[in-house]
Design a protein that fits this description.
Structural class: alpha/beta
Order of helices and strands: EHEHEHEHHEHEEHEEEHEEHEEEHH
Strand order of the largest sheet: 3-2-1-4-5-6-11
Number of strands: 15
Bound molecules: ligand F7E
Helix content: 40-55%
Radius of gyration: 20 Å
Length: 346
């Protein structure tokens, strides 16, 4: 029997990586898009071109009836709930929408599985996040956050994701569902949206190289993240659903780097060496010819920040046999190289 998987939010970075992985593993892959999309719509066609094997379903995470119809029709063996408002900065400006989509959307898909009578068959993966951890003073960041670390979300996004995490556990405990959380630390790559800092940097570096842009504006350069490659992480998501018992897992690299480190490496790819001058909002990054390449724009500061994220993936390494393959340096290089290639092709 061919296994069937449903991915909500299939058009996002992780959705695309995961759909391709599951297709390779022999699954029949279904994915949801939202909006008034017909097969002739450019967005629909773009997704279909990228993933010709994919069966597209139109269903918004806010619409329980549409989700229930989709689940009833497909009868999936596995559901990966990746649909969410996922930008932390955006969530401060749109906290109610974030709560509806990122928190209640999880309940909707879980309920859709139950309403379809599939709670004993369908395995469920919730895209939980390191943004549920937070303030340095509340945790043990030096050793890395593991599955038992205390939560302290610092954004409407993190708070909404915490609801998703707990409702998933609750459905596991209440109804015996195979419902699990992957607590993923930052994972990036060539498909990352340009509103996230890594892609913002890689795109700007490519444009600077092409002479289309002179400098880049950023917010907090000192924020540290545990950055891995999204392509490595989707294998972990799949493994989380292949175990005998449903459990929650941290997926991370176990290394942390600052936004400043990311900039240094990204500019090195195009032969520019950055020197940092000044402090706080006046800090700038200059290249070896003294040309300003990075400046601060305080608009990108967040009302509350997660200063440092470092994950401890020991459990996933031991129980799932999962670990990341792509180093931090390789990740930066692959993102810049891809943007250079895209620019030169356009
Ligand atoms: O910010 C700082 C910013 O927006 C990273 C999402 O996938 O990972 C992601 O959330 C850091 C923050 O990602 C700019 O303040 C500086 O400290 O790339 P980001 P994120 O907030 O870590 C987690 C695991 C998720 O679950 C989320 O869905 O970089 N930063 N300057 C900036 N960030 C942005 N976006 N833009 C800047 O100009």
């Amino acid at each position: 029997m061919i296994k069937k998987a449903l991915i909500t939010g299939v058009a996002g970075q992780d959705g695309r990586h995961l759909a391709k992985l599951l297709d390779k593993k022999g699954y029949q892959v279904f994915g949801t898009l939202r909006g008034q999309l017909e097969a002739s719509h450019p967005r629909y066609q773009g997704v279909q071109r990228d993933m010709p094997f994919l069966k597209i379903m139109i269903a918004d995470s806010l619409d329980l009836s549409a989700l229930t119809r989709a689940v009833k029709e497909i009868k999936p063996d596995e559901v990966y709930n990746l649909a969410a408002i996922s930008h932390v900065g955006y969530s401060f400006h749109n906290p109610l929408l974030t709560a509806d989509v990122t928190a209640k959307g999880v309940l909707n898909i879980l309920e859709a599985i139950r309403l379809a009578g599939l709670q004993d068959k369908t395995r469920f993966y919730q895209a939980s996040t390191s943004e549920m951890f937070g303030g340095l003073e509340y945790n043990r960041p030096d050793q890395g956050y593991d599955e038992s670390a205390a939560f302290h979300p610092r954004s409407p996004y993190g708070v909404a994701k915490l609801y998703g995490y707990w409702i998933t556990r609750n459905y596991r405990e209440s109804y015996g569902m195979y419902a699990t959380n992957g607590i993923l630390f930052n994972h990036e790559g060539e498909n990352r949206g340009p509103e996230f800092v890594t892609r913002k940097i890689s795109l700007a570096v490519a444009r600077i190289k092409a002479g289309d842009q002179e400098y880049l504006e950023l917010g907090n350069l000192d924020a540290k993240r545990d950055w891995g490659y999204a392509g490595d992480y989707v294998e972990g998501m799949w493994r989380i659903l292949q175990q005998d018992q449903p459990e929650d897992y941290v997926l991370a690299t176990g290394e942390t780097h600052s936004v400043r480190d990311f900039c240094n490496l990204a500019f090195q790819v195009i032969g520019l060496t950055i020197t940092w001058k000044g402090e706080g909002e006046d800090e700038v990054g200059l290249d070896q010819d003294g040309i300003m390449r990075i400046k601060i724009n305080s608009e990108y500061y967040r009302p509350a920040e997660v200063d440092l994220l470092l994950g401890d993936p020991s459990k996933a390494e031991q129980k799932l046999g999962w670990s990341r393959h792509t180093s931090f340096g390789d990740l930066v290089k692959l993102m810049v190289d891809k943007d250079l290639e895209r620019l030169s092709a356009s």
